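User: For a benchmark we're assembling, each entry needs the component sequences followed by a predicted structure for the full assembly. Here are entry 17's components. Please fill in the structure.
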Amino acid sequence: MKMSNLYAPTSKEAPSDAVLASHALLIRGGFIAQVASGLYNLLPLGKMVLNNIETIIKEELGHIGAQEVELSFVTPAELWGESGRIEKFGKELLRFKDRKDNLFVLGPTHEEMMVNLIRNKVTSYKQLPLHLYQIKTKFRDEARPRFGLMRGREFVMQDGYSFHQSYEDLDHEFDAVEASYKKILDRLELSYRVVEADSGAIGGSGSKELMVLADSGEDTLVVCSSCEYGANIEAATRAKSSIDKSQSSIKLQKVHTPNIKTIDELSTYFKTTPGRIVKTVAKKIIFDDNEEIVLFFLRGDDTLQESKALNAVGGLDIVDVDEDELKAKELSVGFMGPMGELKIRMIVDNDLMSETDMICGANEVDYHYKGMDMSIFKTDVYADIIEVKEGDKCPKCGGVLGYKKGIEVGHIFKLGTTYSKALKAEFLNSNGQSEFFIMGTYGMGVSRLIAAIIEQHHDEKGMIWTKQSAPFVVNIMVSNIKNQEQLNFAEQLYKFCQKNGINVLLDDTKERFGYKMKNAELIGFPYTVIIGKELQNGCVQLLRRESLQKTDIKKEEIFDYLLKEI
RNA sequence: CGGGGUGUAGCUCAGUAUGGUUAGAGUACCUGGUUUGGGACCAGGGGGCCGAAGGUUCGAGUCCUUUCACCCCGACCA
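Assistant: Structure for entry 17:
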């Protein structure tokens, strides 16, 4: 490819609405162009990078026996009715009707379609396991698309679905996909972490996310500094805290605490640590057909993790409660607690189990109890509902936990029979009995990976592509194309690269040296061979994008040098 | 869906508080010339329904009403 033919409109200035480096650089480098909110056109350079990533994914998934298919982007709404997700997905599903007035949905993910593809066709355990995947445009009408390719409404995803006759077999495939996904990220030279994820309302027996580490990431991860443990903050756990519990014989006692409401005020007043105070958090939980106020109890120095809280009660949504609603339940802010005849559902954090000598609200203005014993609760109200803090102890090794930010580029999920049941997809086992398929689902955000790579590989001058993702690995730059000697040598090297399978671009534009250099740095070719004034001394220069170091190389040696280096 | 912000040349933005020549700059683009190792210089040139609709006024980019789009924070996100 010659630069003079390449459609890559670059610009010096960043678009005013780009916040993330990846977003700004992709636009400045002429990789993408925005169409509307969350919709982007991929230009030649962007498409090349996407192709490169897809090639790696296909190679790696091929190694574990997954087969590529391509399902229709337009999907019949009936299927979404069968699984019940037409309601659950809500407005995120883009619906429309065809000329015959049939309702359709643009596919946001393809569980239903994939189950439909194999049901009544895969009918025997002898045909299992089966892993089918596709790399395909998805559409989700997100409430708030943002950050360029990071969170678009239309995006490219690799989505795989596996079918099994046993959970052991699913576990096997799950591990194989994890290994395969890690290989893909390794080849893209990304630094990442595999973390435990919230399985959410769908349930299932396990779910992991692959997180590319970047400060700009939208997810908060809890990671251990001394072992491999990592989890999304929505799913992270910790070792039980070791609060000193020396005294246990103190009797329950009501204490006048005039206008003392906050955990800080209470710990000062009682001369104790926040960890010995029971914090009461009231939330409204939305269910399918009703809503309910629930009290959550946790240590004063902990905070409620809303996803965990929601999972603990099995609701759809968790929202704040206003003071009037609390008063209607005879609760008052600052003095709420578990004591008394409250007809309210209560959930207690695991960490409080079997504690004694705690302080809690008395459900009476200006009063608290001390000497409270947690044994008043039955064990079935306990759940893990706290948000792990930095500095907490690792549940695996006891090491120190800290936060990191991550970009979710992959999610693997043991689905079980959720969809096969809903869509009545069965096979006959070796005893001739009918069983639902046990499924796994695996997704990787291909277009998001473009952004993720840049978030991890860029500097103030531009993008820094890795060899496997770069649109072109070598850029041959002719300093002055009016110089016939330079041009001739460049053409010679260009042809040599092409013949030897090196992905090469020849910058034969009429621009001046400075312009070409800035452009090469912006686009981020891993290597640029500068053919310029040093040629008269028999030398060319090799610029490495990552270090920005220029090395003089004898012109007759550059050929072998490139072959060796790339 | 709540809160905030912005729409003027391809791009980045002035101009709008206080209405008044033909709406500006930088950059990009075209032509000619000079330059040629870090986004060059000189001269000339093209490019605007001032987001859209309605209104007030002798007169609207500027004031009023409605509306649309885009961005940010939050909620949401298999």
